[in-house]
Task: structure prediction
Amino acid sequence: MENEMIKAAFSAAADGAVAAAGTGRGENRAPRAKKGREALEHFMNLLFFVCGMVAVAFVLLISIYLVISGLPAILEIGPINFLFGTRWYASTGDFGIFAIILTSFAGTAGAILVGVPIGLMTAIFLVKVANHKVAAVIHTAVELLAGIPSVVYGLVGMILLVPAIRVAFDLPSGATLLAAIIVLSVMILPSIINVSETALRAVPAEYEEASLALGATYIETVFHVTVPAARSGIATAIVLGIGRAIGEAMAIIMVAGNVANMPGLLKSVRFLTTAIASEMSYASVGTLHYNALFSIGLVLFLFIMMINVFLNVFIKRKKEG
Result:
């Protein structure tokens, strides 16, 4: 009997020791795991910060380089003559880009006026109206549009669109601003559709349910509740579309005629991007002509920055209102 009691006591003591040792190891592992998670979290925060600073640094470097390269030519030509001159002839030393600026404004505005309604309506149809099979087909088409190189857009426009415009309006050449607007409108559709669709899907379902409960129809709910709630994302889509439209060069060279005329729908014109792309290859390094092309790049960069700032301020005021 005594032996059994002694064995039981030793067994209980051994179990207690093992439990204590296990508890101690668990307590030791917990702080280590916590420290590991904290270290990983600090590392990821640092990595994200570095990536953000790299993006900011690239923007600053591009801005500084454009200012250093483009400002001397503007000062030499004269800001008034450069920005408001209507003649661009490198052979005679005339470097006025007013007609080119107006053409870029007109072409971008025309592409946005045509492309944004089509893209937004397509996104609304995909999110709120279309069934899965139809939506899948349209999604495939949009993805194909996004994957087509810009030179292919220009080639198709040059082969099909330009002759059609020439015949329809009885013109010597169909390479006009109208052709450029149509091509740009098609090119910006994928960006507008994809971003707008994402913004519309992010609107909480409770918003629509509340509107329907108050007696609004489904279409009224979509246009008066869902679309305004997704305004920020739709504005981002418009900004991306503007950036794609104003930054395109190759397709525009092939369908717009590349002549520095004042803008007109049925006239051959030149955009800011096409002026740089078409003349940079034969402009001698260090000449006024070469530096003036960098000045055009600076003007284009400032133009895009102003559009972004305007839209961001507009969206912010709408939200505060």
Remarks:
- The first helix runs from residue 2 to 77.
